[in-house]
Amino acid sequence: MPDVIIYLGPSLPLHEAELILPSGSAVKYCPPVKRGDLACAIAAKPHIIGIIDGLFFENASVGHREILGALRAGIRVIGASSMGALRAAELSSFGMAGVGEVYRRYQAGEIESDDEVALICNPVSNTALSEALVNIRITLERAELTGIISPDEGSALFAEAQRRYYPDRIWTEVIRGAGLPSDRIEAILSWVRTSRVDQKQDDARAALKYIASLIAHNSGVHP
């Protein structure tokens, strides 16, 4: 039985995750979590469940009671990046731990909607086909802070991203649809191609490093 079960999808490619926390007899990676999955995970009696990605709209999302059941069973539940960050913020007072900036923003009430982390992905490869609103938000914040865009441009770009349904949040379409002059469109597109922030990916890495540190220090986990 694995000591650690991690639900991972488009936030971080599996081969990159395994550079941080290799899979094996002690660590098992599973596809994005959905309603009902945690019953099997609890039955496997791991020491840690890591929730990074989860299904939102096409399937029922993982329920709060399922996570509470894992916590009651003495399993350490850690969330980050996407569904994990959302649920960790909602259940932190019950013992679910959160990692990363997306979690921090949910916990602080700076963001609230599931829509912030939703995206569409290839169901076979788990490759993201749209951009999460939280990534757009943080990228625009950085662009404004570094002088790449003005506050007015940032507001226009974010409003365009926010009004779109989550599968339609694609950088090129958002930037071209925000009503900016053509020279600014090309300049911003060029910057985004090289400098966009993938906060969900950064947070997924941070969560895996945290879990790896727990294993290394034997903090309730037997590797």
Give the helices and strands, then pairings.
Blueprint: E1 4-7, H1 14-20, E2 27-30, H2 37-43, E3 48-51, H3 64-72, E4 76-80, H4 83-91, E5 97-99, H5 101-108, H6 133-145, H7 151-163, H8 171-176, H9 182-195, H10 199-216
Parallel strand pairs: 1-2, 1-3, 3-4, 4-5
Helix pairs in contact: 2-3, 4-5, 6-7
Structure, explained:
- Helices cover about 45% and strands about 10% of the residues.
- The chain is of the alpha/beta class and about 220 residues long.
- It has 2 domains: about 5-115 and about 200-215, Rossmann fold, CATH 3.40.50; about 135-200.
- Strands 2-1-3-4-5 form a 5-stranded parallel sheet, with helices on both faces.
- The radius of gyration is 18 Å and the shape is elongated.
- About 40% of the residues are buried.
- Residues about 220-223 have low confidence and may be disordered.
- Give Rg in angstroms: 18 Å
Strand order of the largest sheet: 2-1-3-4-5
CATH class of the largest domain: Alpha Beta
CATH-assigned fold name of the largest domain? Rossmann fold
| Inertia-based shape | elongated
Number of separate helices: 10
Amount of beta strand: 5-15%
Q: What is the second-level CATH architecture of the largest domain?
A: 3-Layer(aba) Sandwich
Total E-strand runs: 5
Quote the average pLDDT.
94
Give helix % range: 40-55%
Topology order in helix (H) and strand (E) letters: EHEHEHEHEHHHHHH
Biggest pleated sheet: 5 strands, parallel
